[in-house]
Structure formats: C-alpha cells, structure tokens
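The instructor's notes for this session suggest beginning with a concrete chain rather than abstract definitions. Hand out the sequence below and ask the class to guess, before any prediction is shown, which regions might be ordered.
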Amino acid sequence: MLEITDHGMVREIRIARPPANALSVDLVEKLTQALMTAGEEAGAVVVSGLPGMFSAGLDVPQLLQFERSDISRFWQIFLRLLKTIAEMPVPTAFAMTGHAPAGGIVMAIFGDYRIMPRGNFKTGLNEVQVGLAVSSPILGAVVRAVGPHTAVRILVAGELMDSEKALRIGLIDELAADSDQVVARAIEWCEQHLALPHLAMTTTREMARSDLRDLFDDRSELGVEKFVDIWFSDATQATLKALVDRLGSR
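After discussion, reveal the predicted structure:
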C-alpha cells in the first residue's frame, strides 16, 4: 500500500493502492505510522500518489459494510492521521499527482505545501454532495487555507474544481507542468527548506503552524459521533450506495 523512497534527506511516502488509492482502515493506519517514523528519521517528507490519481478519498465500499462501532473507530483513526500530519516535526509537502477529491485534499491541507499538475485534475471537499459533513478540525484547516468566505462557498456546495481554480483560491500552493513533475517539485521545495538555517526554520515553522495543531485540542469538537449519525442516516446511506453502484458499473 505504501512505497518508501529516500531522496537524500527527503523521504517520499508513495500511496500505492490502485486503482484509486482509496483510504481503507489498513491504509490509514499504515500511513499514520509511516509519517510518524519519517518525522523521526528524515529531514523532510513528501507524500505522493499514483500517476493521475493522488487519492479518491475514503474507501466507501469498505466502510458501507461496517457497523456503527466500526465507523466510529475508523473516523477516530482518520482524525489521528490528520493530527499526525498537522504535528509533523519536519516540512511535509503533498505531491498530489492527479485527482484529489474529499479525503485526498483533506490530508493535504494539514501539510505544509500542496502541488498539483495542470490539466483536467479535480480536487475539492465534495462531502456534502455525497451526504456527509466535515468535522471541526477539517473546517478549521480549510478556513486557514482559503479564508472563511471562500471556505463556506466551497464546503456548503461540496464543490469539485480543477487544479487551476484550487490554486487561485489557495487550496493548493503550486501547479506543476504535468503529473510527472509533481514529485520532483515537491522534493525540490523540501530541499530548499532544508538548506535554510535549521533552528530558525524549524522554530518559525512550529510557531506558524501552532494554530493548525490547536484544531485538535478540544476532543468534544472532533465530531466523531455526529459524523457517525450522519453516515447512518437514510439519505446518506442511499446516496453512498448509489455512488458505489455507479462506480461499479463503469
């Protein structure tokens, strides 16, 4: 599910669960552990995906088989992954090698830097369109990235957008010429930061990202039970099952 490559002091963690790099329970747990290890062993981290597909988000077919307690546990481990990204002690860039809707972009907004390729690649938090809602830390991270007004517009509508618009509104930070160059640019960004005076860079980074880490302080606001309630509502279950049926017929 993961391929680990060290480029000097930069560790690349490549998500490799074709065809869509969907976030299953096992993948989320393995990615969390890989990030924690990289934070201890590497100078910087790049998280990448498959050519043309960074991650399509949650593994809905798997999750639809779960009981309430299983969904509750999954949401807790997914939030633990996001918290791990927010608390990474080293610069962490997301090389979004293609499409990155829902959980794909959700992971990336907790990193330091996000790069996508130009072209017809989609990203955005489309949870509302499939009957879901984002939790408080995710909302806070989106507001931090794009501002409150834009966050309301894209979240309430569940908007999917191309990478050009994502750049314009601040959801991502850079466009590479094509998907083949995304990882190289992410590694270069990391190396530029590692070339800076180390103590000054790390101290400033820690201060500048403290608000992102603070989003996870109040456990009551993480919305686990609220998410589970919405997940098992009749409307959401019908929408998600219809989505899986459409994907299965392709």
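Then share the key points. The mean pLDDT is 95. The first strand starts at residue 2 and ends at 7.
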